[in-house]
Amino acid sequence: MKKLLFQFDTDTHPSVFDTVVGYDGGADHVIGHAGLTPENIASLVEGAIFTRAPKDKKNTAIFVGGSDMEAGQLLFKAVQKCFFPGFQVSVMLDSNGSNTTAAAAVAKLATTHSLQGKNAVVLAGTGPVGQRAAAMLAQEGANVAITARKIERAIAASENIKKRFGVDVTPIEAFDNAARAKATENAHIILATGAAGVELLSLEQWQNNPNLEMIADANATPPLGIGGTDMMDKGELRHGKVIWGAIGFGTLKLALHRACVSKLFEDNKQILDAENIFALAKEMA
After folding, report:
1. Which of 60, 197, 215, 253 has the fewest CB neighbours in a 10 Å radius?
2. 273: domain CATH number?
3. Could you report the per-residue pLDDT of 53-85, keeping only the tens digit for each?
4. Number of structural domains the chain divides into
5. No. of H helices and E strands in the chain?
6. Sign of CA dihedral 197, 203, 205, 207
């Protein structure tokens, strides 16, 4: 019986990245469908859940992706609404790689020091990776703040995190590097999740911070989000701080993504979202 992974993408074209990792995760065939919405998904889900006997349904799975996490969340919910007892398949949400990226970054930080009671600042944390990472840090017991160029975006993201994950994070307006340096003065942990090629802090703004213990930067496009770090850093000690670069923890991200795909085929009842993806990341880290 072939393992079939249906890649349900909210973008115009299915993600090539997700297709490759789907095969590497153990799928025999990855079948991509693009431009999907909650309104047009039902017939595709029905095709997945009605075609195999109960004992064989574990060989069919669904991966929800695309570049828009908000759209992905809606699609993820719509897929599950089509399920009913005896007729469901495993499904995973990882739009824009947000769940696996955030989980890998926070899991690697957690291998360095306990996160309990630490002050953590997620720079440019209003995007899907930043929001999920902030939630995971808070669930590990950290005191978390997220920054944005405009306070309205930071507040909206904090409210989204509270609604989705039930944890509180503090919104901070930080328009430029100087404001971000001010926001991180008391931080033990800095995680940068900004746009590619945008420096959020310079080396001079963090190297002498006596409180700072750990840095992680999700940006792999020069200039990096945190000046003075390297995308290949794997827990390197720089200026007395432990550094994780995007490629440094990206190895875990890819392994995690593959492991999640493999897990989808263990049975037909896996529902993989941020919480259980993070739990698996901590096991693997």
Report:
1. 197
2. 3.40.50.10280
3. 999 999 999 999 999 999 999 999 999 999 999
4. 2
5. 9, 12
6. positive
Identify whether the C-beta of residue 169 lies closer than 8 Å to the C-beta of residue 134: yes
Smallest CA-to-CA distance from 129 within 81, 191, 202, 175 is with 191
Instruction: Tell me, yes or no, whether 205 and 116 share the same domain.
Output: yes
And the tokens for 81? Answer: 């609404």
Task: Fill in the amino acid letter for 96.
Answer: N
pLDDT digits (tens, 9 = 90+) for 115-160: 999 999 999 999 999 999 999 999 999 999 999 999 999 999 999 9
Q: How far apart are CA 222 and CA 158, in angstroms?
A: 28
If asked whether residues 274 and 212 sit together in one domain, one would say no
For residue 34, give Cα distances in angstroms to 13, 42, 64, 137: 5, 14, 10, 33
Band (pLDDT 50/70/90 cuts) for residue 284 is very high
Asked whether the beta carbons of 267 and 60 are under 8 A apart, the reply is no
Spatial strand order of the sheet with 60-65 comes to 29-33, 4-9, 60-65, 90-93, 271-272
DSSP code string of 126-173? TSHHHHHHHHHHHHTT-EEEEEESSHHHHHHHHHHHHHHH----EEEE
Segments forming the whole domain that contains residue 54: 4-97+252-284
Paired residues of 172 in beta bridges: 147
- Please name which of 220, 219, 239, 218 lies closest in space to residue 228, comparing C-alpha atoms: 239
Q: Are residues 109 and 221 in the same domain?
A: yes
Are 40 and 170 in the same domain? Answer: no
Whether residues 146 and 234 share a domain: the answer is: yes
Give CA–CA dist 220/245, Å, rounded.
8
Q: What one-character DSSP code corresponds to residue 209?
A: -
Q: Do 87 and 20 share a structural domain?
A: yes
Examine the domain organization and report whether 49 and 80 are in the same domain.
yes
Question: What's the token pair of residue 127?
Answer: 């995007």
